[in-house]
Amino acid sequence: xxxxxxxxxxxxxxxxxxxxxxxxxxxxxxxxxxxxxxxxxxxxxxxxxxxxxxxxxxxxxxxxxxxxxxxxxxxxxxxxxxxxxxxxxxxxxxxxxxxxxxxxxxxxxxxxxxxxxxxxxxxxxxxxxxxxxxxxxxxxxxxxxxxxxxxxxxxxxxxxxxxxxxxxxxxxxxxxxxxxxxxxxxxxxxxxxxxxxxxxxxxxxxxxxxxxxxxxxxxxxxxxxxxxxxxxxxxxxxxxxxxxxxxxxxxxxxxxxxxxxxxxxxxxxxxxxxxxxxxxxxxxxxxxxxxxxxxxxxxxxxxxxxxxxxxxxxxxxxxxxxxxxxxxxxxxxxxxxxxxxxxxxxxxxxxxxxxxxxxxxxxxxxxxxxxxxxxxxxxxxxxxxxxxxxxxxxxxxxxxxxxxxxxxxxxxxxxxxxxxxxxxxxxxxxxxxxxxxxxxxxxxxxxxxxxxxxxxxxxxxxxxxxxxxxxxxxxxxxxxxxxxxxxxxxxxxxxxxxxxxxxxxxxxxxxxxxxxxxxxxxxxxxxxxxxxxxxxxxxxxxxxxxxxxxxxxxxxxxxxxxxxxxxxxxxxxxxxxxxxxxxxxxxxxxxxxxxxxxxxxxxxxxxxxxxxxxxxxxxxxxxxxxxxxxxxxxxxxxxxxxxxxxxxxx
Length: 650
Fold this sequence. Notes:
By secondary structure, this protein is an alpha+beta fold. It has helices spanning 5-20, 86-93, 119-122, 130-141, 150-164, 176-187, 210-223, 236-249, 270-279, 284-298, 303-312, 325-335, 346-360, 370-376, 379-382, 417-424, 442-445, 450-459, 495-522, 618-625, 630-646, and strands at residues 26-27, 34-42, 52-60, 69-74, 101-105, 168-175, 192-200, 252-257, 263-268, 404-409, 431-435, 532-536, 540-546, 549-556, 562-567, 572-577, 584-588, 594-598, 601-605.
């Protein structure tokens, strides 16, 4: 990997110094199981530039014997700290960590390892464009900005191995962490015991996300497999193409209702669609909602799409509070192989990138366009990066023939299965496991334990079994009515009363799905505190979860029918109002029925008649809430338990 003998000699000179260093481990303040430590490494692994960086590490010692092998757990990004996930890494790895030390560390420039910062990101409003911000940040970081690439992290891992006295390493990486693991394996093959690569980034990633765009039609069709979209759409890809074509003709806007019930008209463009699709990597329910909302927009109703974009559009890792944006751009801009001359001006670089994209042909990114691919990429930002070094050479070194498990979510857009197949083809006898109904970060998001079992099988030298395909926990919902007149009467009733009663069921169904979407995407199901969440209705009003109680105020899903009141695990008190409905009140009746009066008529819907239209069926609820701790999960389970058994459409 080093281009000259001088560089190679400098690395050899540094290795004895790294080997003599020791990591002083002390118990972490908040854990009896995990030790904290620090290791000082050269800023420049070649030794040509003076300076050092102190890395922050966590270690979970092997339960059996004195470990001669360590597992290095690598987080995503670049820019995501790893130390907060130490216990989660230990849980995911299970028995393979019993005879090996587990080490997590914040990579240089992240978290507790001397994080990079620059004035530009702290005060972005002072810059007239994002490109100017990126250029200013690079200038503020100074010449040392070139020492934060994956290759520098690889050198740090080798220093950790030597300082820890380990003979070999197991490299466990997720997302960007897989790229670091691959580079270490290329550079130090004799020190690698095994590789576990979850959601793969290949050694030489293509800068415009071609594999992501190529995967979009396949994943949309997977959502609709086995007639899951019957009654919703016959072709989700055609729906997406139709919406994108409309966006190209004229700006598309949708009306979204905020958490306080106020209405806002928001722009809907291809960028928002891409962001929403990427956010779907972490929720099967969101993927189903995307198909339904795009189908509605293709038929003229943009409200579902506007609401979903408002909720899920910001799904990128860079939006995380602890994500280090300066480090992200220092790494990505320095090491990505953009099709431009680094000595050119920013405008010239962008022109060269656009020319390269045009040369690929219009069909490569369909139904999106080359312009969408450029906008999604880091090219518009990195075109302004102040380069001082030439572009790196491709990583062409072979990957070692070591036990390797490659995990890929079948529904992953960020790191599609095509990436995993590319890397698997380079490693003799690598095991590629494609996990159905799963997006990004397989071990953390899979609906079953298939990948975990495969991980244990790899290290027990047992056969790795394929994952079963399960019935989908979530299917796209039928398109929302745009008028009460489109709603059929509930079974056993007629006229306005029957239509209103059915509309109430549809509204409760929407509330249940939106509540679970909010809990899932906000991360509340992972916490140990009761969440307070608010969200707007599709057409008007709001819902607010306060502990175990869901409060409603003019929540409207079907135009002309609104719900107010409260729902909890003990009962319901709902007022039905609106411009065109049969007004009345509903409450919990015997045997979990919904009873009351609408338009002067007594109405009762027995729970047994609603089972087939359950909002949150048992399988879906178990899939979404299983293994989740804390009062947030318990509150959601109690509330959704009633909604699932008694609040569905009639």
